[in-house]
Each structure stands twice: as C-alpha cells, then as structure tokens.
Amino acid sequence: MAEDAFVISASMIPFGKYRSSSYVGLAVSPLIDALQRAGVQKSDVDAVYVGHSYGGMMTGQRITKEIGLGTVPTVNVDNACSSGATAVHEAATAIAQGLIDVAVVIGVEKLTQFGGGTLPLSPEDREVRQGIVMPAVYAMRATRYLYENDATVEDLALVSVKARRHGALNPFAQFRKEVTVEEVLAARPVADPLTLLMCCPTGDGAAVVVLASERARNRLGAGKSARVAASVLHSGQVAEGYRDMTKPEITYQSVRDAYAEAGIEPWDLDMIEFHDAFSIAELVYYEAFGLTEKQSAVSLLRDGRTTFGGDVVVNPSGGLLAKGHPVGASGVAQVAEAFWQVTGQAGARQIPDARWAATHVTGGGTAGLDHGACTVHIFEAA
C-alpha cells in the first residue's frame, strides 16, 4: 500500500528581477527558511529534487553545498515550465513508494540572464526554426477561442484584472498593483489579440517545499500540513496535422487521472493554481478542470465565480500573470500557495476554511505535441 506524503513547510522569495544574483543566491535563503520552518535538520533529509530549465549543470548541488547538505541524492529536473512541479512529483512518488521519508524540493530560475524578450526554445524543433514563439502559440489559441465562443477581448482582459487584484494581496508577487480592463486593452500589443498585460512577466525567483512521510511528519512534530492526495505527470501525445487548440488534451487527461487518484470531483476544490502564462489559458483550463462545460467558461469569469467569495478561487496568488513566471520555480511556488491556503497561512488572500487545493502546470512548446509535460497535484488539509 502506498505511503501518504505531506507538504510540511514552504518558503519562497518575492518573484522579480534579481540581475546581480545567481541561481545559488536566489535559492539559499528560502531553502534555509523552509528547513527551519519544518524543524528539519540536514541529517533528516533523504533526497533533494531541484527544478530548473536554464541553470546549467549541477544547479542543485551548487545550491545545497552552500549549506553543507551533501551525500544525499540530489536530482536536477528539467521539464520546461513543468520542471518544479515535476520535481515535487518525483519527491512525492519516492515517499509514496517508501523509498525515503524526507525530501526537499527546490524550484529556481533566473530569466534576467537573457536580457528580455521571449524565452529561448530548442533550435532542433522545426517550428522554432520557422520562428514560433510562445506568445504566438497562445495568440492563435486565443483567436480560435474567441471565434468559437461567446467571448470577447474584454474577457481576456478580465482574466488579467482578476489576476492583478489577487496579486495585490500577495507579498511574493512580481506585480502588486491592480489594473483595469481599459489599461489591459491599451497596453502594448504583443501578438494579436494579446496585449502585454495579458502575458506573464519574465523574471527570477526561487521556492522551496519540504515533503515528509507520515512517520517522519509525526517524528518531526510537524503541525498543519497538506497531504498529497494526487500527483500526476503526463507527457504529450504526438498528433500531426489538425488539433483543437482550445482543448489541451494533456491537461484533460492529467486532471481526469488526478481526480480519480484523489477521489474527489471538481466542485470539491476550494482553490486552483493554473498555469496562466497568458490570459486565454485560464479560460481554457476552466473547461479542462471540469469547472464548466466547454464553450461556457466566460460565464464563470463574468459572474465572479472564480475569485474570492465564488465557487472556487482560481490563482489566489495572482497566478503567473501577476506573480511572475521564473520557469523552474513556478510549479514549486504553486505548491507553496496550496500549502499556505489549506493550512490557513495565506494572510490577506486566505480562502476561508480551505480544505482542497489543486495545482497545474504544463511545460514545453514542441512541434507535434499539445505540450511536452503536464503536472497536476491535489492537496488536502491534514
């Protein structure tokens, strides 16, 4: 029988631009803080998993050596935007299989090293060689979605407005200023119909969570925690030619399996952290998560059913649109938010009586694939 895994502490730095810092400099502070909050000594740690995409060789070892955390297995995970979430999945799986008792998961990225612009993609990909970039992919998705649905560009702006309103409550968010629909629509065009404020900002950041088995949690005297009720990782299925850009099958499949593993339904969730790299993504993922039928997502948004006081709070952290998206750190930061919410530690953005939380992140724009990877977690207050 599988062991239960629990998130017992979390820490992160505010996402932003740390041009003079290094990967090590970004990650050491939240690493020390997460260990201290969990009451975990270095000798308690059985494994370290580190999610990053652009950190280079041995990023995890370079971080852990700074605090003298050696000898234990340190695994570096690159799964594009899903890197940090995949690292959490690997840690939770090892605990569930009884292989380890305590795991530290670090997500870290420094995107200011590229000086701005869109993220570099693999030149081996045929679509990349022809000039594809991620804003263009999501712009095409948005164009198709607006064509097929009773949705407008103003609805895309509403997603950003909600994200910034939530982010204004989050001390870790890169952007903490509310915006209006008019400001979003008037922002600089990026890829029609997307404006700058409909796109997540690049930046730097690091987040750390500590996971433990039930026996380790009891031994350490950990307080409130978040049980990992489901941890699902899927890779994309190759499909050449036409595909429905408004129905990301990798997310549909991952969510289906996560609900089954956790034994819950969509309406049980109190919060979800979506991979909202662009505003259109949130509308598409409402449907993928079963919050509404296909072609009816905008009604949830317009009626305020996905914000505080609604049916389920989507991206209480501000999501990638407000919090920022330092690629390898994002999935771990989502888990940190879920942990804080279900343990009542989310401060001004606390969801009353939050019990069930989900996190979702996809990774990799690759020709022939919907996405390269998708990781979905479901957590229960414990």
UniProtKB/TrEMBL annotation:
InterPro entries: Thiolase (IPR002155), Thiolase-like (IPR016039), Thiolase_C_2 (IPR055140), Thiolase_CS (IPR020613), Thiolase_N (IPR020616). Residues 241-365 form the Thiolase C-terminal domain. It comes from the Bacteria. CDD domains: SCP-x_thiolase. One of its GO terms (biological process) is lipid transport. Gene3D superfamilies: 3.40.47.10. Keywords: Lipid transport, Lipid-binding, Transferase, Transport. This is propanoyl-CoA C-acyltransferase. Its EC number is 2.3.1.176. Pfam families: Thiolase_C_1, Thiolase_N. GO terms for molecular function: acyltransferase activity, transferring groups other than amino-acyl groups; lipid binding. Residues 6-214 form the Thiolase N-terminal domain. PANTHER family: ACETYL-COA C-ACETYLTRANSFERASE (PTHR42870), NON-SPECIFIC LIPID-TRANSFER PROTEIN-LIKE 2 (PTHR42870:SF1).
